[in-house]
Design brief:
The chain is α/β, with parallel strands linked by helices. It folds into five domains: 1-30; 39-177, 60s Ribosomal Protein L30, Chain: A, CATH 3.30.1330; 199-475, no CATH class; 489-588, Leucine-rich repeat, LRR (right-handed beta-alpha superhelix); 596-722, Leucine-rich repeat, LRR (right-handed beta-alpha superhelix) (Alpha-Beta Horseshoe), CATH 3.80.10. An eleven-stranded parallel sheet has the order 17-18-19-20-21-22-23-24-25-26-27. Strands 10-9-8-11-12-13-14 form a seven-stranded mixed sheet, sandwiched between helices. The protein has a five-stranded mixed sheet with strand order 1-6-3-7-2. A hairpin with a 2-residue loop joins strand 4 and strand 5 (109-110). The chain is globular.
Length: 722
């Protein structure tokens, strides 16, 4: 019996040891946390444990398989760690990406900032020690297309935790599905454009061509790729300024041969799937004085070169007179692209082949768009203004790319001939391109067919409402779903509805609704069905509550609820994530901090005359430019307030501030500061760091004469009111 008991005990001990061993195996750490505080010594060793990827621009595509924790460009603290902490118990992480930018670059070389990398790991493991796991895949993802502070500040920087749900984890994973692809071919990313890969390809192609001379090739020899790029861009910039007015018929045979050879080189190095441009131009010799607008991104280079090649072959009777290339923004970050002013548009006379050849590569190096939507309409409108003597408009368009600014198509007053590249009968024609042809009374043109007088009906917002054309099918690509921040408008852009009844009768047409000072008493439920609404003014309408279905206004940018005595907002109010301006002045609000993490695009926030006691989490409003928090009960500012790097105007008058945090002087873009009627006896040191400050109001604060003199000395060029 004793022996049996001993055996049983030994068996239990063995089983326990097995489980302890398994637990130890599962909990095996990947990073030696004792080395993380010493990045100068161990930084390269730590970085070597990551798999590195270079991307044009990382997309924060929040879905069921990833949680995104923002840091900011130069910060290692997480803005909203609760996103992971609140969900981690039911999730199974399998990969961690640390996303940052290949910036700044000094003398063409990027140097890894090891302290920042190590600190991000330290804070990650402080948040959740279980993430330091050798079974996870670890990657660093560097965004490559940045050249300025404004570009880099608009990008995502932080940690992405990829995970599986419990149901997915229970299934045997397919090795091919063990990672989520970073960029799928949809309307957010172009598979072949942008970033370091394309820069390298463009530069190597130029080195082997006659488009840059030998002296430039010598200068860039053995230089870092960033330096090569800048030298070549400068050279091309200078070359395109040398505008030529010599007609092609007056060019010598040697010059014409050289032009054709260079176009041939470009066609050879930029493959295309068919000869649609050649074929369509052959079919339509009646198109004269034509303005040709080329999508100059990604897979479209070869098609654009077809235009010039055909033009050279038919130079004696060509109908092409003007040429435009557009790249959708000159490397502008996606969130900064606004309809009507995205940019990246270049012009040339069709006879000026040397300029066109240089533009081919300059426009390409200056930027390839980044996301998949393009600014076709902006390019057409700008070209029409640049070349008013055209008689035809021809658009060389990508059938796989939606049009970012399709709403502007109604401004085009001439037929647009859309030559469709990348088309096949099975997948059909891009609905945006069909819409453009319809509203301009133009047509769509494929390798074999011309489709004019299209049988479809449209809305003014860029949508096809009825399709009855049996000659072709529409592509299933969804061009209507677009991020709300893509649409920038002025107050004059759309009709402003001021009567509720007329607005309700035309719900889908309403973009701006202004019902201010109308005695509504309660929020009209029909407003939440106006899904295209961009601007809503319900100020001074005596409404008492805001319903949860306001979340349906997902494109809303400008919301005015001031003067309504509101004391609370619905929990899902934060789902209005594309808000740019929010006015809650003269209400009874106590706090908004629970919503701040969702309002990445908010630029103006007015919360004066409320019951605010703190501005907790205000640092999450990374794009905030104007903040009015006057006439509240705020006694202290969070130290993180200095993270509002874009703040220009700040009004904290008539509060209970006793002091300002030392970090306050980190608000480097602040121009106007109102601290009137607080209880400030002094201001923090380093006031001189507020380099852009123009006006400072300190009236009604108990400041001594010595402190006033110090403030004047530190801010000699500022208008100060004591």
């Amino acid at each position: 019996m004793f022996v049996m008991k001993m055996c049983a005990k030994n068996l239990i001990l063995a089983v326990m040891l097995v489980f302890i061993g398994i637990g130890t195996l599962r909990a095996q750490t990947y990073f030696d946390e004792s080395k993380l505080p010493f990045p100068k010594k161990y930084g390269p060793e730590i970085k070597a444990k990551f798999k590195e990827e270079l991307v044009y621009e990382f997309k924060v595509d929040e879905g069921k398989h990833a949680i995104f924790l923002r840091n900011g460009l130069r910060s290692s603290q997480f803005i909203a760690p609760q996103l992971w902490l609140n969900a981690r118990d039911t999730l199974y992480p399998y990969r961690v990406d640390i996303v940052y930018s290949r910036y700044p670059v000094f003398e063409g070389v990027y140097h890894e900032i090891y302290p920042l990398l190590c600190n991000r790991l330290i804070h990650l493991f402080e948040m959740d020690p279980a993430l330091n796991d050798a079974n996870l895949e670890w990657r660093t993802i560097l965004q490559t297309h940045i050249e300025t502070d404004d570009q880099v500040n608009s990008l995502f920087h932080g940690v992405v935790i990829w995970y599986r749900t419990q149901e997915e984890e229970q299934k045997v994973p397919d090795p091919k599905e063990s990672t989520v692809p970073l960029a799928k071919l949809d309307q957010k990313d172009k598979s072949v454009q942008g970033g370091m890969k394309e820069t390298l390809l463009t530069i190597e192609t130029l080195k082997g061509s006659t488009l840059i001379n030998d002296s430039v090739k010598m200068i860039i020899s053995n230089k870092p790729i960033d330096v090569q790029k800048q030298i070549i861009k400068k050279h091309l910039d200078e070359e395109v300024k040398k505008v030529s007015t010599i007609p092609l018929k007056d060019r010598s045979p040697v010059e014409m041969f050289q032009f054709k050879r260079q176009i041939g080189e470009y066609l050879k190095s930029n493959p295309f799937s068919d000869s649609v441009v050649w074929k369509v131009m052959d079919r339509h010799p009646e198109w004269i004085d034509a303005l040709v607008v080329n999508d100059w991104t990604g897979s479209m280079y070869g098609y654009g070169a077809q235009v010039v090649h055909w033009h050279l072959l038919h130079y004696q009777n060509t109908g092409i007179r003007y040429l435009t290339l557009f790249n959708d923004g000159d490397m502008k970050p996606n969130a900064s692209k606004i309809i009507g002013s995205t940019g990246g548009i270049y012009f040339a006379e069709a006879s000026d082949i040397p300029t066109i050849l240089n533009l081919f590569n300059l426009v390409r190096l200056n930027g390839s768009g980044g996301d998949r939507q393009e600014n076709d309409i902006e390019a057409i409108l700008a070209s029409m203004e640049k070349f008013p003597n055209h008689k035809e408009i021809i658009l060389i368009a990508d059938n796989l790319a939606c049009i970012r600014d399709i709403e502007l198509a109604v401004k085009i007053n001439k037929p647009v001939r859309v030559i469709i590249c990348g088309y096949n009968k099975e997948t059909g024609i891009n609905p945006n391109l069909a819409y453009l042809a319809k509203v301009t009374n133009g047509g769509v043109y494929t390798l074999e067919e011309d489709y004019e007088s299209l049988k479809l009906e449209t809305s003014i917002t860029g949508e096809i409402t009825s399709f009855k054309d049996k000659r072709f099918v529409l592509s299933p690509i969804d061009c209507n779903k677009r991020p709300g921040f893509d649409f920038k408008y002025t107050k004059e852009s759309f009709k402003t509805y001021t009567h509720l009844d007329s607005a309700l009768s035309e719900k889908m047409m309403v973009r701006q609704l202004d019902l201010h000072e109308q005695q509504l008493l309660k929020y009209p439920t029909g407003i939440s069905k106006m899904k295209n609404l961009l601007s809503l003014n319900l100020s001074n309408t005596q409404i008492q509550t805001i319903p949860g279905n306001i979340k349906n206004l997902e494109n809303l940018k400008d919301l005015d609820l001031s003067g309504n005595n509101l004391s609370a907002l619905p929990k899902n109010f934060g789902k209005l994530k594309y808000l740019e301006s929010l006015n809650l002045n003269q209400n009874q609000m106590g706090s908004l901090s629970m919503y701040f993490e969702n309002w990445y695009y908010l630029r103006k926030l007015y919360i004066g005359s409320n019951r605010m006691e703190s501005l907790e989490n205000i640092n999450q409003l990374k794009n905030l430019q104007t903040l009015n928090a006057s006439d509240n009960n705020i006694s202290e500012l969070p130290p993180e307030i200095h993270q509002l790097k874009r703040l220009v105007t700040l009004d904290l008058s008539n509060n209970r501030l006793l002091f300002l945090p030392k970090t306050f002087c980190g608000l480097s873009k602040l121009e106007e500061l109102n601290l009137e009627n607080n209880q400030l006896g002094s201001l923090p040191p380093y006031l001189y760091r507020l380099r852009k400050l123009k006006v400072l109001n300190l009236a009604g604060n108990p400041l001594g004469e010595k402190e006033k003199e110090r403030i004047r000395k530190d801010l000699p060029n500022v208008e100060i009111i004591f």
